[in-house]
């Protein structure tokens, strides 16, 4: 029996589902050597170029502005990237980068300064974590976080991080889509409302910065799609990032409370498990137990009911149900199709919050 997260994500655009298997872009197994020496620049955002001739200069200005805010996060198991969140030394990164560690070595963008940091909180449900420098230097360069709700498909973005241990690397691409919902491999955790980008995201890029041409962080890279040929490599041009609106919403809570107290993630508020049909294939999601006065309970669902569709999306297993929930927010009313005593029925559910 599995207790599924069954939660959704914050939305910035039309929700869409992606069935591709994904590969965490996080920790590499080795430290980096060397790094770019980035010079401080004014904190004001860089103006978007008016002509194509200005594009290269704009790229370089954005790199000079943002790269000092992107750090390397090293644990005993590997390394990833992080973004300086504020002047107090808080750094946002991915939950899969920090793993089970509680202490970290932070390498600044210059590649020369190594600092100690401790875990503030980790929220694997959205693959986000916050760590804090134990002795923050005075010359910290917090990044400017933009409004991911204003993103347009086709918008040029830069990804900054430490792929494969290569410090302070920069790649370029566009916003390919918004509102993607992705399952993490064979796990039942589904992350909703991700930004899809063509900017290359490789192991070690996780937790870094996805930046627009105004120098604002609009996402934190977290996933790269796995190649469908089964070779184990990443699929070119298919990377995913947590939107900056979600990052701020969760990071502020972790800093203030030491945990996430308001997930803003949709749920049916029930313990569920996948059931198999006569052909031994997944055939629906059975309710094991409902929470008193929760969304499923209020809709009249009870233990033994098997949900086969939610909000127009088929739910043969708990992962599919989590993906369907990731397309919605708490308070949304959706139709659920379920089986009870061999009879198929439909009910409206007002989704709760995880």
Automatic annotation (TrEMBL):
<keyword id="KW-0645">Protease</keyword>
<dbReference type="Pfam" id="PF13365">
    <property type="entry name" value="Trypsin_2"/>
</dbReference>
<dbReference type="InterPro" id="IPR001478">
    <property type="entry name" value="PDZ"/>
</dbReference>
<dbReference type="InterPro" id="IPR009003">
    <property type="entry name" value="Peptidase_S1_PA"/>
</dbReference>
<dbReference type="GO" id="GO:0004252">
    <property type="term" value="F:serine-type endopeptidase activity"/>
</dbReference>
<protein>
    <submittedName>
        <fullName>Serine protease, S1-C subfamily, contains C-terminal PDZ domain</fullName>
    </submittedName>
</protein>
<feature type="domain" description="PDZ">
    <location>
        <begin position="236"/>
        <end position="342"/>
    </location>
</feature>
<dbReference type="InterPro" id="IPR036034">
    <property type="entry name" value="PDZ_sf"/>
</dbReference>
<keyword id="KW-0378">Hydrolase</keyword>
<dbReference type="Pfam" id="PF13180">
    <property type="entry name" value="PDZ_2"/>
</dbReference>
<dbReference type="InterPro" id="IPR001940">
    <property type="entry name" value="Peptidase_S1C"/>
</dbReference>
<dbReference type="InterPro" id="IPR051201">
    <property type="entry name" value="Chloro_Bact_Ser_Proteases"/>
</dbReference>
<dbReference type="GO" id="GO:0006508">
    <property type="term" value="P:proteolysis"/>
</dbReference>
């Amino acid at each position: 029996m599995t207790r599924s997260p069954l939660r959704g994500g914050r939305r910035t655009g039309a929700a869409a589902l992606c069935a591709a298997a994904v590969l965490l872009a996080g920790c590499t197994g080795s430290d980096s050597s060397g790094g770019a020496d980035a010079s401080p620049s004014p904190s004001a955002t860089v103006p978007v170029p008016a002509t194509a001739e200005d594009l290269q200069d704009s790229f370089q200005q954005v790199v000079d502005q943002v790269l000092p805010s992107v750090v390397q996060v090293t644990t005993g198991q590997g390394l990833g990237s992080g973004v300086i969140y504020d002047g107090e030394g808080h750094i946002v990164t991915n939950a899969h980068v920090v793993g089970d560690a509680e202490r970290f070595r932070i390498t600044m963008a210059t590649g020369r300064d190594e600092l100690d940091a401790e875990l503030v909180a980790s929220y694997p449900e959205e693959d986000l974590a916050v760590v804090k420098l134990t002795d923050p230097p005075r010359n910290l360069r917090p990044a400017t976080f933009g409004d991911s709700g204003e993103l347009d498909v086709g918008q040029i973005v830069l990804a900054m991080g430490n792929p494969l241990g290569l410090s302070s690397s920069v790649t370029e691409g566009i916003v390919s889509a918004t509102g993607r919902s992705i399952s993490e491999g064979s796990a039942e955790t589904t992350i909703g409302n991700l930004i899809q980008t063509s900017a290359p995201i490789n192991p070690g890029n996780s937790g870094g910065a996805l930046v627009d041409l105004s120098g604002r962080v609009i996402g934190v890279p977290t996933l790269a799609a796995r190649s469908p040929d089964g070779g184990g490599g990443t699929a070119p041009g298919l990377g995913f990032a947590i939107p900056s609106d979600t990052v701020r919403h969760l990071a502020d809570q972790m800093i203030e409370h030491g945990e996430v107290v308001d997930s803003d993630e949709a749920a049916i508020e029930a313990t569920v498990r996948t059931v198999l049909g006569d052909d031994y294939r997944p055939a629906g999601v059975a309710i094991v137990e409902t929470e008193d006065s929760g969304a499923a309970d209020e809709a009249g669902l009870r233990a033994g009911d098997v949900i086969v569709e939610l909000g127009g999306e088929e739910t043969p297993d708990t992962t599919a149900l989590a993906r369907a929930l990731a397309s919605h927010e708490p308070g949304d009313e959706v139709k659920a199709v379920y089986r009870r005593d061999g009879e198929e029925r439909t009910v409206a559910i007002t989704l709760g919050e995880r």
